[in-house]
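Hi there,

I know you've been waiting on this one. I reran it after we fixed the sequence typo, so this is the corrected version. Both the input and the resulting structure follow.
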Amino acid sequence: MPDQPAPRPVSAVPRRLRISCACAAVVIVAVMTVVAVLLKSSSTGVVAFQTADQVAMVGLGLAFAAGVLFVARPRVDADAAGVRVRNIVGTYQLPWSLVQAVGFDRHSPWATLVLTNGEEVAVLAVQAADGERAVAAVEGLRALRAAGAPVDDTPRTPLLYE
């Protein structure tokens, strides 16, 4: 049997999520800027808005937009040595010997890494909404897993909370 070429490194991001978050961030900044411009002309009779209030409104819009863009942070990078998963609020770096399987069920919103101790790590960068891109990323992760070190099935302490 001829030698098969080594699997290529995999890098994936949630494309649709990033596009949606970018559009939402632009809309938020635009709406808050319009509100800031119109704020000076509206007076309730009780409160008179100043230039500082307008600047604060734009600043709030930028802060809200940054929060929305933070949701688009997930990324997965994998090579022969292991896999690095960056989710919205957490980062994991795992060697392939600790990954038992790469799961991506038909009705799952994103892929998961099944670890040797039974825990699962969500891979939010590989989302079902991305269609063929997600399937290609999962196939690449599975190929790297198959080429990686053999799975050690001995029970371990929890990996995520050591």
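Quick highlight: The chain has a mean pLDDT of 86.

Best,
R. S.
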